[in-house]
Amino acid sequence: xxxxxxxxxxxxxxxxxxxxxxxxxxxxxxxxxxxxxxxxxxxxxxxxxxxxxxxxxxxxxxxxxxxxxxxxxxxxxxxxxxxxxxxxxxxxxxxxxxxxxxxxxxxxxxxxxxxxxxxxxxxxxxxxxxxxxxxxxxxxxxxxxxxxxxxxxxxxxxxxxxxxxxxxxxxxxxxxxxxxxxxxxxxxxxxxxxxxx
Length: 197
Prior knowledge:
With about 200 residues, the protein is of the alpha/beta class. Helices cover about 40% and strands about 15% of the residues. It has helices at about 20-30, 40-45, 50-65, 80-90, 115-120, 140-145, 170-175, 180-195, and strands at about 5-10, 35, 75-80, 95-100, 125-130, 155-160.
């Protein structure tokens, strides 16, 4: 069986060449063929993300380019905004799975709206990887959304993890672990999820 294709999209604030993305690309390459993308605003040196339709269009175009000649499974993986846009793309493009690393379920601030419509509309299996300290995706809020989803969905929790899945020194010390141990567990959760698709 051919290796799965993993199209890996960055979050809003950094390009695909950032240290975080580069490190996770290397980890994902142990699972499949990884292709990264950057959205137009990042390529043009602008700080503010494009409007959602333009992000979706760019993501879909990157998927079409990456998919040429590939016969195996296709997975859309993304950090934060990249995961959310991947979810939108999966509504119209055939993919086998979604991996959301720090899904941004709500915007910043107490009055921020909840971004759950796309999750409820999903038909593609999805793995959420979420830190317990992620202000953009409180786990109790995600727990109210998951039962309303018809897509098969799994959750891997990073104890003490922030929006970038980095655990606090206190949490690491309490568990007798390093961040590498935490990242390896995430990597294995992703491997199992993709392997079961």
